[in-house]
Every structure is written in C-alpha cells, then in structure tokens.
Amino acid sequence: MLRWLFAPGFFASPPVHSALIAGGIAALVSGVVGAFTVLRGQSYAGHALADISVTGGSASFLLGISPLWGFAGTGLVAAGIMDMIGIRRPRGRDLATGIVRGAGLGLGALFLYWDTTSTNASGVTITVLFGSLFTVSSTVLPLVGALSAVALGIVLIGYRPLLLSSVSAELAVVRGVRVRLVGMACLIAIALAVSLSALTIGTILSTALLVGPAATALRLTTRPGPAIALASAIAVAATWLGVVLAYDSFTWPPTHTGWPVSFFIVVLIFAGYVLAQFLTQRPGRVRAQEA
Amino acid sequence: MSHSPPPPPPRPAAEVLSVDGASVRLGGRDVLQDVRFSLGAGEFVGLIGSNGAGKTTLLRVILGLQPLSAGEVTIGGLPAAEGRKLIGYVPQKIQLDPDMPVRARDLVGLGLDGNRLGIPLPSRRRTAAVDEMLAAVDATRFAAQRVGSLSGGEQQRIMIAHALISRPRLLLLDEPLANLDIRSAQEIIALLAKISTQQQVTVLISAHEMNPLLPVMDRLVYLANGRAASGTTEEVIREEVLSRLYGYHVDVLSVHGRLLVVAHAGDGFEVLAGDETAAAPGHPDHSAAGTGE
C-alpha cells in the first residue's frame, strides 16, 4: 500500500524535501491564521491580499530576488494601506480592500508583462499565479521559517484579544482591548500567511489554503482551540498528500510530465470541505426540526 | 458645576456611579444636556427613554467611550476612563454567527481575561469561576453549545455572565429586553434583580419600555430630548416632571397597573412611553413589538 502511494525515489529527492518543509510550514500558518480570518469574516481581505501579492511576486523576478520577498513585501504594504483607508468599518472595509486590490493587480499585470517579454523566464506567470512547490529553493527555507514565526507569534500572543474582538468588537473595547491594534496585527498575520502559501501553491490559489481548511474545521468543532488545530492539520495533510500525488503523477497520462502540486492540494481541500458539509448535515436538519 | 480638586467632595462610600452635569454635543445637536444622577451600591435602576432619547450615548459616556462636552462622570470615585474596570457591560443585541466555534462557556471565560495576551492555560480556578458564573445565570445546561446557536434569552444570560465574571461593581445593560419574548424578558429581569441583591452589584438597565421593570426598579432615570430626570417611579413619572423634559405637555395615565406617557398629536394622541406589550400577554401587537433600535 505504502509502496503504491510513494513512488520510488520520493524520500531521496531534495526538491521533495524542500517541498514538504516549505509546503508544510506554509500550510500550518495558513490553517492557524485562516481560522481567525474566517472567524472575523475577513476572507475577502485575505483574497485581496493574495491577489495583490501578484505585484510583488512578479516584480521579484525582475529584481532577481526570491518571490517570497515580493509576496510578503507587497502583502504587508497592502495590509497597511487597507488599514489606513478604513478597513475597520464594515462598509469602508470592502471598498478599501477592493480599491487596493485593483491597483495592485494593475501593477502586477505590468510586471508580469515585463517578466515574460524582457526575460527568458517564460514560466514566471504560471509560477506566480499557480505556484510551483517543487522549484522552491532550499535557500529560501530560513525566510519561510522567519515569516511563519512572526505570523504564528501574532496569533498566539494575541489569541484572547483576537478571539474576543472576533466575537464582538464592542465587547472587546469594553474589556480594554485595543481593537484597532488587534485588527492591524491580524491583517499582518493574514498577509504573511497568504504570501507563504503564494510561494507554495501560487497567489491565485493561496486563499484556498487560507479559507478552505479553516471553513472545514469551523464546521466540525465547537471550540476555538481545536478549530485552529484541526484547520492546520487539514491544511498540512492536504499539502503533503498533494506533494505525494504530484510526485506520483509524473507517470500519469496525458503528458507524463506530472500534474501541478497546487491542483492536488486545492482539490483535496475542497474534497475535505464537501465531506465535512456532508457529515454535519444530519445534525443541522435535526436542529432545524426542533426549532 | 466647578470641580476643583482640593476639597474632595464628600461622596458616600457606597456611591458607585456619579453623573454630574454630563453634556454631549454631536454634529451641532445636544444629545445629552446637563444629565445628573448618582447610583448607590446594589441599586437596580432603569434608564428609560424612547429610541433616540440618548440612552446608548449615556451608556457610552459612562463606559468612557464617548467624550463629554461638559460635566463629569465618576465610577467608584474614579474618572470614567479608569473606572471602566469596575463596569460590566452587556451591549445591545449582537449578531453572533451560529457557525462560530465558540462555546457559551468560552465567551464567559473571555469576560475574565479576554484582554490578556497569550493563550489561556487550563486552570482549575478559571474553570471554577466560569462554572460558578454559568450557574449564577442558570446557563449551565447550554454552556457547551456554540454561543451563536443559542436563543436570544440564552445568549442574553451568557452576555450577563460574561459581563459579571470580572466582579464589576456596576452592570450596564443596553436594551437587554429588546428582541426577547415576554417570558424570556421576565426571566432576565428576575435574574438581574436576584444578581443585584446577591452580589451587591449596581444595575443600570436601559429600556424603551418601563412597565416590565416597574416591580423590580429601585429608581429610574428618564431620558427625553437628551435631558434626564431621576428618582423613584412616583417622583419621575409625573406630568409636570415629564412635560418639562419633553418641552411640551404630556399626560401620565395608569391603565391596569401599567403607566403610559401620552402627548397630544394633531387630533389624537401619541403614546410616548408604555405602549410596548412586554407586560401585556396576549396583546395583538405582540409580534410587532420589540424590534429594538
């Protein structure tokens, strides 16, 4: 069974090692941060930050630096701008997010054009948009670790104020929580989580990793701690299993050149969500009848 | 209205809240004008007024969230910003997501330490405090359910427990009876009256309908047009007092033990207070009542 799942050479391959480490860490962070993203109803902000990181990712190829620097750099700047122009008010929030997202994507289009016309890296567009986990260089792993530590640190240190202000900003203010600061810190954590998964599964798909496992976990658990743990477990499991399947797929039709890792990861996350939906449907119906 | 610091005003030790000439001007409109009253320990006081009378603004002033244009508010002798620690607050109906993985007891626990950093370590003392507070509001039986999936009355109990677990001296509730059916409203009132006596906590509860509160209120603060009158029901719900607040003549009627405040409007009349139906089971308008602010 195991031999069937793990193709020969899987554990000896250096790109697989990097993929498992970078992908696993990015998934862990996405699960933890994603739980709060969904709790706070900031999925759209996460989505926009992911789109905006296209700008930095495509610029990084022109500058010859790791795309992770580009993803994280633009993500943080965009988070700052979104906070400045009124992400706190629910109505201003979507507007601010949409405006920043539009501007970012416009720049991204320009940089991607330059990338593909002026350099030889014709695969840049695919890499930026859809990721390529097997080409993640092992030299970028320390940066992955550092950014992850910051994102996880924000969530762990700010856990209670974050949770309380997610339930109700009003209750949090009265308890003496600095809601604005908490919101800003959370947005930074989201930006970092999204840039990490942009590196592994691409900017377009990175919100799938942020929102999917969290939404699944929130359906299956009634407590915040276990929800966060489950979200990260689902994200990591989907990523690792995706890496395994992608490695296997080099022998698959139609092209025998392998299917993209990102495809497997996203499909697994979606399957998990559908399964959770199916599992929790029955209790939901009973509750509806009682009401 | 001078409050020079040198001779500290001789406040009775039991005074929990003092609102002294509080005025708030927002956008050229006087939302509160020279509001003054004080609350003693363990008092149960209603903050009565129709929608837009300034109740929520006054509660925000007491919480230190709304700056005053004139006047002073002290809580337990401290200015509002510092006195906030002594206050438990139950906001107006919060929309809670039923899918949110936060149990009722988790929210109560956050009332104890929701402002602290780090993840809460399991502690027997914390668990015991949460259990005790859940029992005090009679919420033990649904403590393990998601807070968003609870009924309005159940959520209200959890909010009260969340506010009380930090052992405040003053409990503020913003329209806690709005959106509740009659029975749940009566249960919440009885619960608050019990807590106020047992824990010697002062309760200030805002409501646009005073009748359900009449049996339990020690005193009331009546707000109209941003002006306030305070005292016992007999002292405040009088034609001369309320006419002065409203700025035009109003009548006070007592109908089947319920008080109605009525003003002339055109050829007919308009009921300014007391026309809600929480105290009158079977009233045909019941389904339309209590849509809140």
What is the strand and helix layout of this fold?
The complex is a heterodimer of chains A (291) and B (293).
Chain A lengths: L1 H4 L8 H26 L3 H21 L3 H18 L5 H29 L5 H7 L10 H17 L1 H9 L1 H6 L4 H23 L4 H15 L3 H25 L12 H30 L1
Chain B lengths: L14 E12 L2 E12 L3 E5 L6 H8 L7 E6 L2 E2 H4 L3 E4 L13 H10 L10 H13 L15 H13 L5 E5 L7 H17 L3 E6 L11 E6 L2 E5 L1 H4 L2 H8 L3 E6 L2 E8 L2 E6 L20
Parallel strand pairs in B: 3-8, 3-9, 6-7, 7-8
Antiparallel strand pairs in B: 1-2, 1-4, 4-5, 9-10, 11-12, 12-13
Helix pairs in contact in B: 3-4, 3-5, 4-5, 5-6
> How do the SSEs of chain A run, as a string of H and E?
HHHHHHHHHHHHH
The portion of residues forming beta strands of chain A comes to under 5%
| Elements of chain B, N to C (H/E) | EEEHEEHEHHHEHEEEHHEEE
Give the low-confidence spans of chain A: 284-291
Work out the helix count of chain A: 13
- Any low-confidence stretches of chain B, pLDDT <50, length ≥5? 277-293
CATH topology of chain B: Rossmann fold
The share of residues in extended strands of chain B comes to 25-35%
The CATH homology group name of the domain at 14-204 in chain A:
ABC transporter involved in vitamin B12 uptake, BtuC
Mean pLDDT of chain B: 83
Total strand segments of chain A: 0
